[in-house]
Every structure is written in C-alpha cells, then in structure tokens.
Amino acid sequence: MEETIDSPSQQDNQLLEKQESSTWDPIELEAISDSIIAAIKTIYDPEIPVDIYELGLIYRIDVSDDRDVKIDMTLTAPGCPVAGEMPVWVERAVSMVEGIRNVQVEMVFDPPWDMTRMSDVARVALNMY
Question: What total of structural domains would you count in the chain?
Fold first, then answer.
C-alpha cells in the first residue's frame, strides 16, 4: 500500500491518505515524510527565490511499503529552462533520504500550475500576500 503526501497548499505538509492495510508505523511514516519534504525543500527554481515545495510544484508524493517513492511534479511554465534538469534534482535529493529505496519523478502538466498552489510561506517570500 502507498501513503500519499500532497503539496503544502493542499494539506500543509500533512499526510493525506492513510491506507488501512499499510504496514507503516505512524511515527516512522511522519519521520520519513518530513525527511522527504525537507529534501525537496533544498531545491529552488533558479528564477524564483522560493523552494519548489512551497511553490506548489510538487503535486503528489507516494511512498510504498517497500520504500519506493513516486513523485508527480510540475513547472511554473512548460517552457522552463531547467525543465529537463529539475526532476533529476528532485530524484537525487530524495534518494539521499535514509531508508528510501527507489525514487521515480514524473513531470505532469495537468492540472497546470498557477499561483493558488503556492503556500503562505511562498506568498510572503514573494510579497504576494
């Protein structure tokens, strides 16, 4: 079974779906979720001084019982100059989290990103609040 973590604007760093048959201990799941999010927060869009998690570019994070991670992410614009590089940055960062086995990052553009996906932290940092 997979556990899902959604972007900050949707659930403010909280676990979204708890599967009844999951083998995750709640404390362990919270710790690994926090570690994955912390790793993602080290990645910044080169043109925006806010990390990609707070920008709302991470649409979904699934962690399987086998500790495989699948991440759906997007870009602020499809023509972003680092479109090919950013998923690799995310994969590398999350792969460094202790206990993670495999990481797969998929670029998605549906739904398209817009500013409503940004967290309050991002809005304040960009003077948009």
Answer: 1
